Every structure is written in C-alpha cells, then in structure tokens.
Amino acid sequence: MIKIKHTNKVVLAYSGGLDTSAIIPWIKENYSLEVIAFVADVGQSKNDLDGISEKAIQSGASDCYIVDLKKDFVYDYIFPVLSTGALYEGNYLLGTAMARPIIAKEQIKLAHQTNSIAVCHGATGKGNDQVRFEMAYAALDPNLKVLSPWRKWKLSSREELIDYLKSKNISTTATKEKIYSRDENIWHISTEGGVLENTWNEPDNNCWVWTTDPMMAPDKAEYITIEFDKGYPITINNNSLNLVDCLIYLNKIGSKHGIGRIDIVENRLIGIKSRGCYETPGGTILVTAMRALEQLILDRDSFQWRQKLGLKMATVVYDGLWFSPIRKSIQNAAHVFFNMLSGKIVLKLYKGNIIVIKKYSQQSLYSEEFATFGKDTVYDQHDAQGFIKLFSLSSKIRAMKNKK
C-alpha cells in the first residue's frame, strides 16, 4: 500500500479512455482515496461523452462532474494563441497543448469545491502532458498533492492496461489491435501509437478520424469567404457566426475536403521524438486566411516581429507555461497586430489544399498604383538609385578594404 497523509478525495482528469479508466481502481487500491472523476467538455465527440458518468462510476469513482468548457476554450485559449501565429516546429497547431491548461484550471477549481487533497492526471512519464498539467497545478495551487500513476505503477504498456481492466471487469473500447492514443477537442484530433511508432509505416485508415482522404474528397472545389474584424472571423459566406459555431462549421467543411492533415515527428519537451497524425481542418483554414490578411496589412518589420512572437509563443504553450508572465507578455504584444486584421479572404478548398484566391482590407498597404508594371504617376524609379547607393555603402566599403 502506498501511503499518503490525510486520506480523503482526489480529483482525476477523466476522459473515459484506457489510461484514466485504469487509474480509478488503481488509486483506490493503492491510496485508499475517494476518486472524483472530472470530465472537461472541450468539444470532443458526443460518443466520447455519452454514458461517461456511468462508466466512471462503474470503474469505481464516487462521483463524476462534466463541465462544458467549449466557449471558454475557444475564446480564452485557442484565439489568444491563434492571434500570435504560433506553430510548433512549423506544423503543429497546438491542439493538445492549448487544452491542458483550461482542463487543469477547472480541475483545481473542482478540487477546491469538493475539499479534495489531491489532483491526478493520466499522462505518461514519457510525454509532454505530465509537464503541462503539473506546471498548471503548481501555478494555481502548489499545496494540492499531485498523483501521476504512470510514474508509479508497475503497468508498463497499454496492453497491460487492457489486461488490468479485464481483471477488474471494466469495459474499454481499446483493443490490442487498435491501440492508438487519441486526444480530441473542438480544435483538433491527434492519433499516436500503433503503426505510427515505426516511421517507415504509412498511416492506415484508422489513423485518420475526422477528415476525408484527400484522394476521395469531392472532385469539385468549394469556395468560402471569411470576413474578419480586428482578428476575429465574424462571417462565413455572409452568415454571422460566433467563434464556437464558426469553428464547428469550418471543421465540417474542411473535413469534407481533406483539409488539415499532418503526419509529423516532433521534439517533445523531455527529449524524446514522437510521431503523430494531427487533423485540424477548421484551424488550418483560419490560419491560412489570417496569414493572407497579414500579407496585405503588416509592413515588413511588423510581419517579421509577429513571426518571432509566434515562434516563442509556440514553445511557451507547448512547454506548459500558460500561467506565466511570458505567455501574457507575448499575447499582449501580438494583440497589436491581431487588432489590425480586418478584411475579407476568399479561399478555394480542393482535395486537401487551401488556395487563397482573393483578399481585401481597408487597412491594406498594397497599392496597385505603386506596384503596377504599367505606367504610373506616383513613383519615380530614379529614386531607387540613391537608395541603393546608401543601402550598399557598407558592402562597398568592405570590398574596398579587402582589395587593399
């Protein structure tokens, strides 16, 4: 028996999946704690939530709380990150990383409400999520005890977890043949493990959940117009939508056309490389449209600085530093540029591709009058001669010195 002082209650971040289903009986066996299951509804599929309370109770939880966090997740986590242009290692749209802080925050809140002495997560000792959860716990309430079963128990694989659940007569949808680890929310779905552990294996059909195979997507392209006001999408094809409904709609249309699939090997914070298939159809559409607006509106120095902010923000969020001054600082700095993004973008969706075909903004710095290859009356091309002389002066002096 593993001893813990003041035996009482623990709040478990519960998904109903393989790991957290095994954690409930394991905690009761080893700590004699009353387990309260906490389910964060961040937009995962309805199938994942149907019957989840009953499943938690059947697994041994004393109670199960389901909290709808979709609106807060979209408004207070997704769009603040989106506003910075953050992309981890140039590809990953941070779907899992953004969800962990809001889950941890609500988990801590429930722990306070239920007078629990501990919180628990189901992240493995190899991954990033253990850091993200526990960084949030430390920032929000360092006095709560933290349980991380994957770092304690003798179960060493997901296959052993399946056998453990069978011995406890607890049902699970995971099988030894389809043993993928998945994370789903309103922004994305990720798939890891299984055939993906060998980087020479092509992802099979079971690796993709939301999106249509681009080869099987409609043969006819579809056009959509997104209007932005101060960074936020306000209409799609002239229909007004709130941010949650906007994302749901873009996920649906993007999935139909095979948009937003990536198969990447990423550098985890702890030093291990991992491979995952990520599907972010609506997010990929939004990012593409916003970058098109930036091309019109931001001057070169502003664009380059926004890129640096996005690069740093991606690392900060990926590493679990959400509740830190650096995240707030980056977000505030990027909001200056985000607030400038007003206009309309027309996109063409076709077999996994997003093509920007039209862009307009009243804040656009693009001037056809100046950029034209035809005759104009606003730009004197002779002016470039003096500019080039000054701009190249240091190169000229260096060449002269070298020649001597």
UniProtKB/TrEMBL annotation:
Binding positions for L-aspartate per the UniProt entry: 124, 128-129
Annotated SUPFAM superfamilies: Adenine nucleotide alpha hydrolases-like, Argininosuccinate synthetase, C-terminal domain
E.C. numbers: 6.3.4.5
TM region positions: none
Top-rank EC class of the record's enzyme: ligase
The Arginosuccinate synthase-like N-terminal domain, residue ranges: 9-170
GO molecular function, a single term: argininosuccinate synthase activity
InterPro entries: Arginosuc_syn_C (IPR048268), Arginosuc_syn_N (IPR048267), Arginosuc_synth (IPR001518), Arginosuc_synth_CS (IPR018223), Arginosuc_synth_type_1_subfam (IPR023434), AS_cat/multimer_dom_body (IPR024074), Rossmann-like_a/b/a_fold (IPR014729)
GO biological process: argininosuccinate metabolic process; L-arginine biosynthetic process; urea cycle
GO CC aspect terms: cytoplasm
Binding residue positions for L-citrulline: 92, 128, 132, 181, 190, 266, 278
Annotated compartments: Cytoplasm
Segments forming domain Arginosuccinate synthase C-terminal: 180-397
Reaction it catalyzes: L-citrulline + L-aspartate + ATP = 2-(N(omega)-L-arginino)succinate + AMP + diphosphate + H(+)
Keywords: Amino-acid biosynthesis, Arginine biosynthesis, ATP-binding, Cytoplasm, Ligase, Nucleotide-binding
Binding site for ATP: 13-21, 40, 122
Pfam families: Arginosuc_syn_C, Arginosuc_synth
Oligomer and partners: Homotetramer.
The family this protein is said to belong to: Belongs to the argininosuccinate synthase family. Type 1 subfamily.
Protein name, UniProt field: Argininosuccinate synthase
Species this chain originates from: Buchnera aphidicola (Therioaphis trifolii)
